[in-house]
Each structure stands twice: as structure tokens, then as C-alpha cells.
Design a protein that fits this description.
This protein has helices spanning about 1-10, 10-25, 30-55, 60-80, 85-100, 105-125, 130-210, 220-245, 250-260, 280-300, 335-345; strands at about 265-270, 305-310, 315-320, 350-355, 360-365. It is an alpha+beta fold and about 375 residues long. GO terms for molecular function: kinase activity.
């Protein structure tokens, strides 16, 4: 419902509603015996228009039927109201709707027979200068079609740019974490190999001094030996802490991928014990979630994508499921094939299945 209201508030939809309201005002000049049929035709056209404008993307077949009905209703109104000249406005609306649903070449191919039929109706009704009216009508249709086409292209370019930007942000987050981990590992190695080695040598020398009768009773030697032992233990603890604190920030990267998408929302749960230090595994996880977001939006009309990442013994267990429903069943296209290839590249396992409600469920196991 929220999505339908959002579509209803879009500028193109509101423009169509206001145009239909303006057309309805012109029907009051019709004779009484034609008024009821014309009003019913206009109402049916409005219903088909709203169905096409605010219906979910998954209703493509229904929208195509509505689009065909709108063309027939526009011609019917033209036959009922030839003196008014309001029906051609419906054809302008039809072209705008068709461009948003079909490829331009199919719209152009459909415009020719529609306008030919409109010309013949005007000619049959004795309307003055039917060819001129048809050409003017065709010009307005072309203008509406071009406006919608370029608006749609700009919107798609904006969406692609937002996805690319999100991809870059996620990659940058993973790269920054990888660089940070590499620096921590380098510091841990330096502390262990250099400072640890020299402190071990100092401790051995102090032990030798403590065994010398001339220094055995000196408190300074005992204290120095004790401090060197404690310092060596402290360095070992710091080295271990640096190694244990390694791990890529998957939370930030995955949420960055979902941020530009209006739908579906990402419900993400990562167990506290999960740590990913391998950039290849982290990238695989990010790409799987990214493709799942795309599939849930395009093919399942889902509102939420549920992602859970857990540590299962020596493996990472990723579970993904949405709250939508697959329209064409579970068909493994390029996206799912890409996920399978990525999982295989890091020696993981992938299982695909349909949930009881008809959505896609991914079960992935990757090396920890």
C-alpha cells in the first residue's frame, strides 16, 4: 500500500490524473444519450491508467493488458465524442504510459495504427480537417513520449550511478579495513620478532648474572630480571591482541550496498563471534548480498531481505531470504550463476531453494 501511494504521488502520475479530470469537464457538453457511455468509457480508462501507474513492477502482464485496454477505450471515446476533440488527449496519455512500459520501437509501431484509426474515425464523423488534427495529435504524442523516455532514462542513470557509488563505498570500506589489518599484522610481527627477540636475549643475560655469585644477592639484578619477564609477557599479550582484533567491517560494507535501494530494506544480523580477515571471502559475501538485493527487487517484489551471518565451527554460514514471491519460479540466471562461481572460487558451498511462501532462499558456507 505504501508503495502504491508513493507511485501515486509521482509527478507523471499526478499529471495524468489532472489531465483526465480536465477531460472529464469537457464531457458535460455531450448530448444526454451519449453522456453515460462516454463517462463510463473515461472511468474505465482512468482505472486502467491507475492500475498501470501504481501497480507493482511484478504485474507486467496485467499492465500490458491495461495498456491495450486504454488504447481501445481512447478510440471508443473518440467515436463517441467526435465534435469535442477530447479523445486525442487520452492517446497522449497512452503514449506516455506505453513509453514507461515498452521499448521505444514498439511504441512507435503501435502509434501508427492508433493514429490511423483515429484519423478514420474523424473522417467518418465528418470532423473538419481530420488529417491536420491527427498530425497535431501525433506531435503532442511524440512530445509526451520523448519527455517520459528521457525522464525514465535519467532515472535509470541515477539509479545505476547510486548503485555504482554504493559499490565503491562498500569496496572502499573493505579496502580500508584490509589495509588496517595488514598494518596491525606488520606491527605484531615487528613487536614479536624484534622487541621480543631482544627482550628474550636480555632475560637470558640477566639470568646468567643472577647465577653469578658476585651478583646473585643484588636486588637490582633480581628486579631487572623480573621486569624483563613481565615486559616480555606484556609484548606477547599486545601481539596476540593485535592479531585477534583483525577483521573486516562487513556491517558497514553491506549496509552501504543496500543504502541507495528504495526497496527491499536490509535486515542484517552478524553474530559477534564472526571475524573475516580474508579480503576475497569478504568480497564474496558482499557480492552475494548485493546480487540478492537486486534479485529480491526485480524478481520477487520483496520489501525486506533478511541476511544472517554466523560462525559454524570452521566455516561461515550465510543465510539469505526475502519476503517476496518469485514470479517465474526459481530460474538460475546470470546473477545466480555469478554467485555460484564466486562461492566456488573461494572453495565454498551454495544451496538454493524456494521457501514455503515462494521466495528464494540462499544457504552459503564459506571458509572462515
Amino acid at each position: 500500500m505504501d508503495q502504491a501511494l508513493k507511485r501515486l504521488r509521482e509527478p507523471m502520475t499526478l499529471a495524468g490524473v489532472f489531465t483526465l479530470a480536465a477531460v472529464s469537464l469537457g464531457l458535460r457538453f455531450l448530448p444526454a444519450h451519449l453522456l453515460l457511455a462516454a463517462v463510463a468509457t473515461l472511468v474505465a480508462f482512468a482505472v486502467a491508467f491507475l492500475l498501470l501507474a501504481i501497480g507493482p513492477d511484478a504485474w507486467r502482464r496485467t499492465k500490458l493488458i491495461a495498456l491495450a485496454a486504454m488504447a481501445a477505450l481512447a478510440l471508443l471515446l473518440a467515436a463517441l465524442t467526435p465534435p469535442l476533440g477530447v479523445a486525442q488527449v487520452l492517446l497522449v496519455i497512452w503514449v506516455a504510459c506505453a513509453v514507461s512500459l515498452l521499448e521505444p520501437r514498439w511504441v512507435v509501431a503501435a502509434m501508427l495504427p492508433l493514429n490511423t484509426a483515429f484519423y478514420l474515425l474523424m473522417l467518418q464523423s465528418g470532423f473538419g480537417a481530420p488529417l491536420t488534427m491527427t498530425l497535431i495529435n501525433l506531435g503532442f504524442q511524440s512530445l509526451a513520449g520523448l519527455c517520459v523516455h528521457y525522464a525514465r532514462s535519467a532515472e535509470e542513470s541515477r539509479d545505476r550511478l547510486a548503485l555504482v557509488n554504493a559499490d565503491l563505498l562498500a569496496t572502499r570500506a573493505l579496502l580500508a579495513d584490509s589495509t588496517r589489518d595488514a598494518e596491525r599484522l606488520r606491527l605484531a610481527r615487528e613487536l614479536h620478532d624484534v622487541a621480543g627477540h631482544k627482550l628474550t636475549a636480555m632475560k637470558l643475560n640477566l639470568r646468567a648474572l643472577a647465577n653469578d655469585p658476585a651478583f646473585a644477592q643484588r636486588d637490582e639484578v633480581k628486579l631487572a630480571h623480573q621486569l624483563s619477564t613481565e615486559l616480555l609477557d606484556d609484548i606477547r599479550n599486545v601481539v596476540q591482541a593485535l592479531r585477534d582484533s583483525r577483521g573486516l567491517d562487513l556491517q558497514t560494507a553491506l549496509r552501504a550496498l543496500a543504502a541507495p535501494l528504495p526497496r527491499p530494506a536490509l535486515s542484517l544480523h552478524i553474530d559477534e563471534g564472526v571475524t573475516v580477515t580474508d579480503p576475497a571471502v569478504a568480497e564474496t559475501l558482499a557480492r552475494i548480498v548485493q546480487e540478492s538485493l537486486t534479485n529480491a527487487a526485480r524478481h520477487a517484489n520483496a520489501d525486506t531481505l533478511f541476511v544472517t551471518l554466523e560462525k559454524d565451527r570452521d566455516a561461515l554460514h550465510l543465510r539469505i531470504e526475502d519476503d517476496g514471491r518469485l514470479q517465474a519460479g526459481m530460474v538460475e540466471g546470470n546473477g545466480l550463476s555469478g554467485i555460484r562461481e564466486r562461492v566456488a572460487a573461494v572453495h565454498g558451498e551454495l544451496r538454493l531453494e524456494a521457501s514455503p511462501r515462494g521466495s528464494l532462499r540462499l544457504d552459503v558456507r564459506l571458509p572462515a
